[in-house]
Amino acid sequence: MYLMTHRPFSGDIVPFDRPIDVYPHAFEPARLVVAAARCWVTARKEAIATKASLYDLLAPFGCEAMTMSFDKLMALFQECLARPIQLGDAFLSSDEQALVDLINRMEAAGAYTDCLEIKAVALECRRYLRNSKI
């Protein structure tokens, strides 16, 4: 995994028009969010337990307590999209960017006004990231 240093949650976002790997520092929380989102979507597609997959990914970063919140956030996010979440590859997809924005700056929260619970769950995930070992 590429998230190694401890840095406070900066609120910075990873632009989706550049590969995620060109940001070697300062974006560790966003990278973890993207990695967790990709883990969750992949687990769902492969019919694997999402919570167990997320726990295995998040535990090394001291974020295992975030497992339930992130699982709930992803389910709500997909429900609000009314379609499956699209993943990126070396570049972030627009869905991944929206998720990062939602957690980092709550910018996307207005787009999900029909899903009242999503803002509270996103804030909970943000608190976990701020208190993590990242």
From TrEMBL:
<protein>
    <submittedName>
        <fullName>Uncharacterized protein</fullName>
    </submittedName>
</protein>
